[in-house]
Structure formats: structure tokens, C-alpha cells
Amino acid sequence: MHVSRRTLSVAGLIAAALFSCVSLSIAADSETKAAAPKVASAVAGQDPVARVNGVAISALELARASKVMLAGQRGMTPSADQQKEFEMQALTQLVSAELLYQAGQKLEIKDLEKQIDDKLAQGRARFANAEDFAKAMKSMDMEEKDLRDYTRRDLIITNFIEKTIVPAVKVSEEDARKFYDQNPDKFTRPESVKASHILLGVDEKATAEEKKAAREKAEKLRKELAGGADFAELAKGNSTCPSSKQGGDLGYFSKGQMVPAFEKAAFALKPGEISDVVETQFGYHIIKLTEKKAAEKVDFKEVKPRIEDFLKNQKIGAAVSDYLAEARKTAKIELLLK
């Protein structure tokens, strides 16, 4: 069974330099990037910031973990106190990860090196080219050896949790049903419609004459539809939307998924009706409503697997926290960060 990384909250920074995290740092906006070095500079160097059963956690590891945490707060320019808080949160995560890693080393993992190779290959594939990969590595002050080490630790911790904690976690149908009954708002499917459209696209920089020509063509097509022309055929031959290949079919959508003017026109129609020409920032649309579905409560059987996964992930997170609480009682943990 695969355990979601999101579920393992305490292990979320196990591999602060794993590809998912490195990608996050690259994607962060300029404000976040500008702030990140301030966090790192507070603990620059190789001096230990903590020891767990005699194993040192270096300042560099903490700097990387702090940078990852800060990258998740896009647009935020932290104060000195907030930077310190990020560092302490990251250090707590790293201590937890070290405890799990030390326990995980006692378990054998078959083909560990191959698993590491596979995971690294998957990570590299997320980048468009070698230059982007190198830039990501540089942003985390890492070399490939570091990335391999972090990946090994991540796999060892995940294996430990899957082998020793996950098997004891159970979610009954009664648990799932109780959650379903107590959270009706989470299982309501909103009103939705199925529609098709013909789009006469207009570029944002189009001249008034070009816009007028597109509108006139849309009005002409609308008249053809009123005269009995086949909507799908006109869409295939005239619409500039990729949906033209499906005769303009957009499938089902609910409120909030389309631009306001389009949504208002679509939801105002009755099944089988065709709208007048509707203008949006994309151009001129003619909309045909195919079907309308009222809001409804989703059947328990349909959502049961998702509820069970959600509850199981919650229980796994709680079980990991319980394990760590016990492990800390007997572990020798020295916090050296000042």
C-alpha cells in the first residue's frame, strides 16, 4: 500500500531536497525567493543545530528545510520572529524524521538502490531540461549526492511507516458512515449543466473591425441554427475552441467553473435551448444546453472509498505522532539552535 506523503505530516520535510520540494522552491515568487536566504543565513554553516541519539542535524539541513517551508508561504515576507518560528518548526520536523529514519534502518528494504535510482529518474523527468534541473539543485544548495541521500532517507522512513504503523490502522464501514452522516455539506453535488458551444474567438488585441466581423459571423451562425442547422456540424466547421472536434461539447460543469457571462447564459437555458450570441473575453459564443442536473446528495456507496482513504490517512498521521511521542521519551535529543 502506498502512503500519501501528505498524510505523513511529520515526515513532510524528510527529504527537503526531494524533487517535489526543489520544484516548489523554483516555483516560488520573487518575494518568497528574496526572503528565503534570510532564513538560511540565520543558520549558515555546517555546525550542528541538534543531535538525535548522537546523530547530528547540520545547520545546512535546517537551512534547506526552512527554505522549503518558506517556499510554501508564497508572497510572504516573514519578520525576524516568523523566520525564527519557521526554523523551529523545521527543526522539530527534522528531529522527528531522524527518529523515524533511525528506526527504519533496522528494517531491510529489497532493491533499495534500484528504488532510489527509479525515484531520481522520475524526479528528473519533471524538469523540462538539464538546465532547469541544475537551477533547482542550486536553489537548494545541493549536489546530486545530497539528493540521493535524501531520497534514501525518504524511502527508509516511508518503508518503516508502511511496515510497522499502517498495518495496525483500520477504518470500519461504521466509521465511514458516521463521517458521511456528520458532514452532509461535504457530499453534496452542486447543480450542473451539460452544454455545447460555438466560439468565434477574438484576440485581446483585435481591432474594432475584427471584433465586429466575428460578432456578425456569430449572428449569422445563430440564424442558421434557428433555421434548423445542425449545431455539432456548425461547431466542427466554425468554432475556434478545441471542443469543436467534439461538436462543441463541453461536458458537465457547475457554477464557478466558467466565466460569469458564459455561466449566466448557460444556466438560464432549458435543455434543448440555444442562447443568443454571448460575449466574453474569449470572443463570441453560441451555447446549446443539453442537460441540467439539480443539486443532489452524493450516495454513500459512491464516496465510501474516498472517505475510508481520508480517515485512514488521518489515523496514520495520528499513529505516527503517537509513535514519535513515545520515541522521544527514550531518545537523547539535544537542541543546539540559539
3D architecture notes:
With 338 residues, this protein is of the alpha+beta class. It has 12 helices and 9 strands. The relative contact order is 0.14. The chain starts with 18 loop residues before the first helix and ends with a strand.
List the helices and strands and how they pair.
Blueprint: H1 19-27, H2 30-41, E1 48-52, E2 55-58, H3 59-71, H4 80-104, H5 112-124, H6 130-139, H7 144-164, H8 173-182, E3 188-189, E4 192-201, H9 208-226, H10 231-238, E5 249-254, H11 260-268, E6 278-280, E7 283-293, E8 296-297, H12 300-330, E9 333-335
Antiparallel strand pairs: 1-2, 1-9, 3-8, 4-5, 4-7, 6-7
Helix pairs in contact: 1-6, 2-3, 3-4, 4-7, 5-7, 8-12
Major beta sheet, specifics?
4 strands, antiparallel
Strand order of the largest sheet: 5-4-7-6
Level-2 CATH architecture of the largest domain: Orthogonal Bundle
CATH homologous superfamily title of the largest domain: Porin chaperone SurA, peptide-binding domain
Helical residue percent?
A: 40-55%
Task: Give the CATH class of the largest domain.
Answer: Mainly Alpha
Q: Which stretches are poorly predicted, pLDDT < 50 over at least 5 residues?
A: 1-44
Annotation, overall tally of beta strands: 9
Output mean pLDDT: 85
Order of helices and strands: HHEEHHHHHHEEHHEHEEEHE
- What is the terminal-to-terminal distance? 41 Å
